[in-house]
DNA sequence: CAAGAGTTGGTAATGATTGTCATAATCTAT
DNA sequence: ATAGATTATGACAATCATTACCAACTCTTG
């Protein structure tokens, strides 16, 4: 069984969570899973462009719909980049995670965020607020993109 | 000295941090300070609309420029709401803060975020990433907007 | 095959934000 | 105070991600 076949199998299984199975949804989900392994978070636009380049002409509307449905179903994490664009990441498990994301290449590193979860839970208890949710994102430059990795060092 | 006069005085002083003094910048900054006391975070669009309603016709471009300059100068915090719109909040001090924001009315509560700062600093040290920055936002429903405050309780 | 529900994808609309540039205001040096 | 240089303003157009719309298409079911 090749890596590609494994991806397709996973995608095929997951697509049924969204409703009717369609080739387009499988393509989008498969591409999202690939992107997760390679680049971390991806935007709907870039994922669409990637599909077009790969001769998989899925409509932009369908890409947006599928990614939104995945996020709604809890199968994808969503963050916003510095321009406000939404970035998606496939989430194999069902727990909510936090990531350290490279601003240069988009690669993401899942974090152990127990300390933050505890802090947020404490705030929720003591503030008088209800339905408290938290957004925690770390961004930085990963070792591969850093100054000593053939980039463009300053100074 | 009235409250209005105090606001104007503060705004006048702060405007000089952005470069040349102009009445428009003073108006925008004053409105931002007022908004901070009343509503917490505000968007550029709503701030602009508010100025028009108050017969202070400052151009939308100028509102955007001034708010961006304030954020750049560290005199305003910026977050994104659920639609990706940028929300600004005047920051009297110079330290970076985190807030618990009510999704209903926009009121914000500054948080003691030492635990998060420490956690983020630790990640920065151990991850190999450089230029690590963090975004931490808590959202919820404040006591005034909660189910027992005349809102629309569910269930 | 026919009907019906759900899906697709091209296109248009939306809405925040940014770019442009002629005009106007502000600062500086005299 | 005034001229000159620099900077800011604001109306408008452009950009861009995202959403809405809708006619054509695809399954499933009888």
TrEMBL record, chains A, B:
<keyword id="KW-0963">Cytoplasm</keyword>
<keyword id="KW-0408">Iron</keyword>
<feature type="binding site">
    <location>
        <position position="142"/>
    </location>
    <ligand>
        <name>Zn(2+)</name>
    </ligand>
</feature>
<keyword id="KW-0862">Zinc</keyword>
<dbReference type="InterPro" id="IPR036388">
    <property type="entry name" value="WH-like_DNA-bd_sf"/>
</dbReference>
<keyword id="KW-0238">DNA-binding</keyword>
<feature type="binding site">
    <location>
        <position position="145"/>
    </location>
    <ligand>
        <name>Zn(2+)</name>
    </ligand>
</feature>
<dbReference type="GO" id="GO:0008270">
    <property type="term" value="F:zinc ion binding"/>
</dbReference>
<keyword id="KW-0804">Transcription</keyword>
<comment type="similarity">
    <text>Belongs to the Fur family.</text>
</comment>
<keyword id="KW-0678">Repressor</keyword>
<dbReference type="GO" id="GO:0005829">
    <property type="term" value="C:cytosol"/>
</dbReference>
<dbReference type="GO" id="GO:0003700">
    <property type="term" value="F:DNA-binding transcription factor activity"/>
</dbReference>
<dbReference type="InterPro" id="IPR002481">
    <property type="entry name" value="FUR"/>
</dbReference>
<protein>
    <submittedName>
        <fullName>Transcriptional repressor</fullName>
    </submittedName>
</protein>
<dbReference type="InterPro" id="IPR036390">
    <property type="entry name" value="WH_DNA-bd_sf"/>
</dbReference>
<keyword id="KW-0479">Metal-binding</keyword>
<dbReference type="Pfam" id="PF01475">
    <property type="entry name" value="FUR"/>
</dbReference>
<feature type="binding site">
    <location>
        <position position="134"/>
    </location>
    <ligand>
        <name>Fe cation</name>
    </ligand>
</feature>
<comment type="subunit">
    <text>Homodimer.</text>
</comment>
<dbReference type="GO" id="GO:1900376">
    <property type="term" value="P:regulation of secondary metabolite biosynthetic process"/>
</dbReference>
<dbReference type="InterPro" id="IPR043135">
    <property type="entry name" value="Fur_C"/>
</dbReference>
<keyword id="KW-0805">Transcription regulation</keyword>
<dbReference type="GO" id="GO:0045892">
    <property type="term" value="P:negative regulation of DNA-templated transcription"/>
</dbReference>
<dbReference type="GO" id="GO:0000976">
    <property type="term" value="F:transcription cis-regulatory region binding"/>
</dbReference>
<feature type="binding site">
    <location>
        <position position="105"/>
    </location>
    <ligand>
        <name>Zn(2+)</name>
    </ligand>
</feature>
<feature type="binding site">
    <location>
        <position position="102"/>
    </location>
    <ligand>
        <name>Zn(2+)</name>
    </ligand>
</feature>
<feature type="binding site">
    <location>
        <position position="117"/>
    </location>
    <ligand>
        <name>Fe cation</name>
    </ligand>
</feature>
């Amino acid at each position: 069984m090749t890596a590609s076949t494994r991806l397709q199998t996973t995608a095929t299984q997951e697509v049924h969570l969204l409703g009717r199975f369609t080739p387009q949804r499988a393509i989008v989900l498969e591409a999202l899973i690939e992107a997760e392994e390679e680049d971390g978070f991806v935007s709907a636009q870039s994922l669409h462009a990637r599909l077009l380049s790969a001769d998989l002409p899925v409509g932009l509307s369908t890409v947006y719909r599928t990614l939104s449905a995945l996020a709604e179903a809890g199968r994808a994490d969503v963050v916003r980049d510095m321009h406000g664009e939404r970035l998606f990441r496939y989430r194999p498990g069902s727990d909510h995670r936090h990531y350290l994301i490279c601003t240069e290449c988009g690669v993401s590193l899942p974090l152990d965020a127990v300390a933050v979860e505890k802090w947020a839970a404490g705030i929720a208890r003591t503030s008088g607020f209800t339905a408290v949710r938290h957004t925690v994102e770390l961004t930085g430059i990963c070792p591969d993109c850093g100054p000593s990795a053939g980039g463009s060092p300053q100074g």
